[in-house]
Design a protein that fits this description.
Number of strands: 16
Number of helices: 21
CATH class of the largest domain: Alpha Beta
Strand content: 5-15%
Number of domains: 3
CATH architecture of the largest domain: 3-Layer(aba) Sandwich
Radius of gyration: 24 Å
Distance between the termini: 52 Å
């Protein structure tokens, strides 16, 4: 059933053809469906097979999931189904009648909407908390789950609904969320990069400011000034941050370095390419690169840009103070072109997580990625790795921060604000970031139990020059970051035409209001 999520909506549409869809507010919830029968999962069972047996359709499993989850809230002998692709032998399921199942499917808007995912879970005595994010991989999922546990302990009568949409850096999530918000449908809270990304959601219209959360939790006194300036947009705060990430990290497999006779990570690009040649000579793939999630190339290039100039010059690219016509931009493009020549040819087919896995599996030696890769190593119990700033970026910290926003039409703003309070707390940030692979947004976290990389990142944050990431929403207006800059980088990765790419970057800056 690995791919059933993808095709479910098509099958549901066929099931309910010619029948008007009820409004979301009138949608029958799982709690409204009685159990026509109970079913105990056997080895080899799938929800699709059970649905086909009961209703004649392999994709009519949503009512079973919804009814079982609703029953679980009042009777723990029934299973809680987080993912319809994963059920276990011995689980007790609630099978609704055909009539109830058909009624549910008529109203069900799909798993990829907050309303739809909320229908798949019951409501606690104090309602639901619908949390939308793009955290579905190893360390990021583990970190989010730590926060879910803490919220549930403090609020046992609230049912948490994980409305995550897979896709690194939110490449799938953001477009779907915006469409839903514009349509008047919202989760209770959602993941938002600090900085310019808030502008995507029309601050004050689709999202409301969270200044009250800062005031009641005294957050301005525990977040560093550099982060606060990144978080404040149009004189308000639009998200409560849970972390600080560093994007300009070079990760390497220590065993493969040793095998190739490399004794230290490269600090310059000349050293990097010399190391890459040694790795190739030893029969080792030098570079692991992803591209499927749609952000990896832009991410890699921004770190190379940051290493080709001073921190002030790099930051100036996004404010009009540094020209994209600069010879240093030309040099960065030349370096990027050479870097790509050492990367795996199938990078367009791999997500960032799959590329990171190549290091874990000993199939490639180096990878440029943000320190969420550290979370991936943690979740995979991989310890034989090292790190260094991307060549040329020692003393520069390319930063981003994940926060949680408050939609104007959040179904339950009370529970949403309880989540924001948790997100900003010291206890939650310590628990979350140990798994996520990032450092706390707060300045008072205790790093003694964090791993060695995170302790080094916390130290660098206080000593390095901090510059914002464009790929991850902090540096530039969304239209520039996701179109002009991204399009130029993607085209360059295909063409290798340095002059054309630089001209495209110059044009993108001009379109963003910074004529060169």
């Amino acid at each position: 059933m690995k791919h059933k999520w993808i095709y479910a909506l098509l099958a549901i549409a066929l099931l309910v053809a010619m029948v008007p869809t009820a409004p979301a507010s009138a949608a029958p919830a799982g709690a409204a469906m009685a159990c026509a029968k109970d079913y105990t999962v056997n080895a080899g069972d799938t929800l699709s097979a059970i649905a086909e047996k009961e209703y004649g359709s392999i994709t009519a499993y949503w009512p079973i999931m919804a009814a079982t989850n609703a029953k679980h809230l009042t009777d723990a002998s029934y299973a809680k189904i987080e993912n319809p692709d994963l059920i276990e032998p011995g689980w007790k399921l609630c099978i609704p009648s055909t009539t109830d199942a058909e009624a549910f499917l008529k109203a069900f808007p799909g798993r990829d909407t907050p309303t739809g995912v909320a229908m798949l879970f019951g409501e606690g005595a104090k309602g639901q908390l619908i949390v939308a994010s793009w955290w579905t991989n190893g360390g990021e999922f583990a970190g989010l789950n730590e926060m879910f546990k803490m919220f549930k302990e403090a609020n046992p009568d609230v049912e948490i609904v994980n409305a995550a949409i897979a896709g690194g850096a939110g490449t799938n999530f953001k477009g779907q969320l915006l469409s839903q918000l514009l349509g008047g449908v919202a989760p209770d809270t959602f993941q938002l990069h600090a900085g310019w990304e808030a502008d995507t959601y029309d601050p004050g219209v689709l999202i409301t400011n969270v200044d009250d959360a800062y005031a009641r939790n005294k957050l301005e006194s525990v977040f560093p000034p550099t982060l606060l300036s990144m978080l404040k947009f149009k004189d308000h705060y639009w998200g409560v941050p849970v972390n600080i990430h560093r994007s300009n990290v070079l990760w390497y497999n220590k065993a493969l370095f040793e095998k190739a006779g490399i004794t230290a990570p490269p600090t310059t690009w000349d050293e990097f390419f010399a190391a890459a040649d040694k790795l190739k000579a030893a029969g080792i793939a030098p570079v692991a690169l992803g591209g499927k999630d749609g952000f990896e190339l832009q991410h890699t290039f921004e770190t190379i840009l940051a290493g080709s100039m001073t921190a002030e010059e790099y930051a100036g690219l996004w404010t009009g103070k540094t020209s994209w016509n600069s010879p240093k931009v030309t040099a960065a493009l030349e370096t990027f072109k050479k870097y790509l020549s050492y990367a795996n040819e199938d990078h367009a087919a791999l997500t960032w997580a799959a590329a990171t896995q190549l290091l874990i599996d000993g199939k490639a030696a180096m990878n440029i990625m943000g320190d969420w890769a550290n979370g991936q190593f943690i979740s995979g119990n991989f310890t034989d790795y090292g790190w260094a700033p991307v060549p040329g970026t020692k003393g520069t910290f390319v930063a981003l921060s994940d926060s949680f926003a408050l939609p104007t039409k959040a179904p339950d703003p009370v529970n949403a604000n309880l989540w924001l309070d948790l997100a900003g707390s010291k206890a939650a940030q310590e628990a979350f970031n140990k798994q996520k692979g990032s450092i706390c947004a707060r300045t008072d976290c205790d790093y003694s139990s964090f791993n060695a990389y995170l302790q080094s990142a916390a130290k660098d944050w206080t000593a390095d020059s901090i510059v914002p990431s464009v790929t991850h929403g902090a540096a530039a207006k969304p239209s520039w970051a996701t179109k002009g800059y991204a399009d130029a980088v993607n085209l360059f990765a295909t063409s290798g035409d340095v002059a054309a790419a630089q001209a495209a970057l110059v044009a993108a800056a001009a379109d963003a209001g910074y004529p060169q």
